[in-house]
Design brief:
By secondary structure, the protein is mostly beta strands. It has no helices and eleven strands. The radius of gyration is 18 Å and the shape is elongated.
Length: 196
């Protein structure tokens, strides 16, 4: 722990490889195997769980709780993720919140998303300002932005459409407007707007 620390101050590290490569980063907390392993100059990060924030070198003020949470993150700022492999693939996204196993798993550059529930916004890549609450809600979304959904598998099949609102389990489940990127759909109730 803190093996390479040069001038970094007020860091806390527990576990093999925790903050191992930290040089100048301050105010970080790393608990668990290889947590914040590559952090060099990042400030104010909290990583709890094996390999959480492992690849991070310079990002600031991220919180990752859970094995492999924000594992691939590098240069991100202000993300809060809780759950096994939550936001695992994220590289540069900022101000995202993910709660649940695999939530925002593939998010690469998307910013300001909120995902609550296992698999919520799992395949999001660059979509921004989405709110997904419910297991597997907005599950296949990749680039769609400004969508708001509440309910189990709501807007499940959406990939690129924007400006949709779905409230209720399975609402807009199969709405996938790949040719109409501005969806502007509103559905309220169980299976509302689901054509399947």
């Amino acid at each position: 722990a803190l093996f390479a620390n040069a001038v970094g101050v007020q860091n806390t590290a527990f576990g093999y490889g925790a903050l191992k490569n930290n040089q100048t980063g301050h105010y970080n907390v790393a608990v668990g195997f290889d947590t914040l392993f590559n952090n060099d100059s990042g400030l104010g990060n909290v990583a709890i769980g094996a390999s959480a924030l492992e690849a991070q070198t310079s990002g600031n003020y991220n919180i990752a709780i859970g094995q492999s949470a924000l594992q691939s993150s590098n240069g991100t700022t202000g993300n809060v993720v809780v759950g096994f492999a939550a936001a695992n693939v994220m590289k540069t996204g900022y101000y995202n919140a993910a709660f649940g196993d695999g939530a925002l798993f593939y998010n690469y550059t998307g910013n300001e998303n909120v995902a609550i529930g296992a698999g919520a916004l799992k395949f999001n890549i660059s979509g921004e300002r989405n709110v997904a609450s419910g297991r597997s809600s907005l599950y296949t979304n990749t680039t769609g932005s400004d969508n708001a959904v509440i309910g189990y598998q709501s807007l499940f099949s959406n990939t690129t459409a924007n400006y949709n609102t779905a409230i209720g389990n399975y609402s807009l489940y199969d709405a996938n407007r790949t040719s109409d990127t501005d969806g502007y759909n509103t559905a309220l109730g169980y299976q509302a707007g689901n054509t399947g």
